[in-house]
Amino acid sequence: MTNPVERLRYTAPADRxxxxxxxxxxxxxxxxxxxxxxxxxxxxxxxxxxxxTAAVLQPDLPNWAWHEYGMRVGFWRFLEMxxxxxxxxxxxxxxxVIGAYPRVAAAARDAGWEFMxxxxxxxxxxxxxxxxxxxxxxxxxxxxxxxxxxHGWLGPGLTxxxxxxxxxxxxxxxxxxxxxVDDLPARVATAHGELLSLPYSVELNxxxxxxxxxxxxxxxxxRARLHAKRLIAEAESASGVKIMCIAIHPYISAVPxxxxxxxxxxxxxxxxxxxxxxxxxxxxxxxRGSGDGx
Length: 294
Hints:
It is a single chain. The protein is 40% helix and 14% strand. The chain is built from ten helices and nine strands. Strands 1, 2, 3, 8 and 9 form a five-stranded parallel β-sheet that branches. Strands 4-5-7-6 form a four-stranded mixed β-sheet. Helix 8 runs parallel beside helix 9 (256-271). It has a single domain (17-290), classed as TIM Barrel, CATH 3.20.20.
C-alpha cells in the first residue's frame, strides 16, 4: 500500500507551462452534483436534526427524509437550473441510485450529464465490506445504464484507503476528485498506471459551507464569486487557465430558500466569456493534451 504523499509529484506554479483553451477562456467551471442513496437501515451519512436525547437513533427517519426531499424535489430544481444556463454538470452518483431512483438517473442521463462513480451506497470507503467489488459494480452499472464508460470517481465523503487509487485504476477509472490539492489536475501514481486528480472542492461545497459552518444561502455564491475573480486574474497574468469546482447537493442547495441565490451565481458564470463549463472527461482530455509539467 502506498502513502498519498508518495503518489503525488510536487511542482510549484511558477515551474509549470502556461495553459490555454481553444476559445481563449481563463476559467474552467466544473459543476458537480452529488446524488446519493441513503439506506434507512444505516446510520445517516449526515444529520440536520439531532435526536432529542442526543442519542443515535435508528431508523433515523427525520434525517433520511431530509435527504429524500432532495431526490424527490431538489434534483428537479437543479435539472431546470442547469438546462436554463446551457450547462451539463458532472453527476457524482452512488451506483445503487440507478436502481433506487431510476427516474432521477434517467433524467440526468438524458440531459447529457456525465456520471462519476461515488461508491455503491453512501457509506465511507473504509466501511465497504469489499471495496474492489463496490468499485467494479458501480463502474459496470453506470456504463450499462449510460452507454458510456465510467472514467471518474469521487469517494463517498472523499474517503479512501491506502489501496483505493490502485483499485480504481484497475477498474478502468482514470481520473478522480479525492485529492483536493491544486487549482489544476495533479497526477496520481498507481500500480496500474497514472490517474489524474481533478480539482474538486471542499470549500466551494454546500456541505461544509451550509451544514457545518451554518452560513446562509448567500455565502457559497459569495465565495464562488471571489474565488473566480482571483483565479481569472492569476490565469490572465501567469498560468493561462485555472479550474473552479462548485459541489452541490439537492437536499441542501436546491431547497426553496437557497436555490435562487445559487441560480443567480450560475447565471453570472454562464454569461462570462472568460468562463467555460466542462465535464470531468473533457477536463482530463484537455489537460493530458496540453502538457502539464505537474
